[in-house]
Design brief:
The protein is mainly β. It has strands at 23-26, 41-46, 58-62, 67-74, 80-84, 105-108, 114-121. Strand 3 (58-62) and strand 4 form a beta hairpin.
Length: 122
């Protein structure tokens, strides 16, 4: 399973002037670079209704196993979303040579415990 994009422990930060924000947190790796780099702060808004996902937007996605910051893309299968990274780095050597280091992966909608739209980098 692809665990890149792990956002680390919940670390709520004051979102400052972003009054629509539910909160803010740090990003903990470079899978979404150059858009968000390690230790960038992002403000987010909780999404209660999964039917209102804005495809092509960035979200914090929480499951029982991980928390990731990813761009959500639509799947033909309505029960899944595709979680995509911005970082287009590829493996230079080895068995994975030429493949994306941060490959897209599917997440079943029913496994999502928390969903938060990324509003802005702060």
């Amino acid at each position: 399973s692809n665990m890149d994009g792990l956002a680390g422990p919940v670390e709520m930060i004051d979102p400052g002037p972003y009054k629509d924000a539910t909160g803010a947190m740090y990003v903990y790796n470079d899978s979404m670079s150059p858009k968000y780099k390690n230790r960038d702060k992002i403000a987010f808004k909780e999404v209660a209704d999964r039917d209102l996902i804005l495809y092509g937007e960035d979200y914090i996605i929480e499951t029982s196993e991980y928390r990731v910051v990813k761009n959500i893309q639509k799947r033909d299968d309505k029960n899944h979303i595709m979680a995509c990274s911005c970082n287009a780095d590829i493996w230079e050597t080895g068995a994975m040579k030429g493949r994306l280091i941060h490959e897209p992966f599917d997440i079943p909608l029913k496994k999502i415990k928390g969903l938060y739209l990324v509003l802005v980098k702060i």
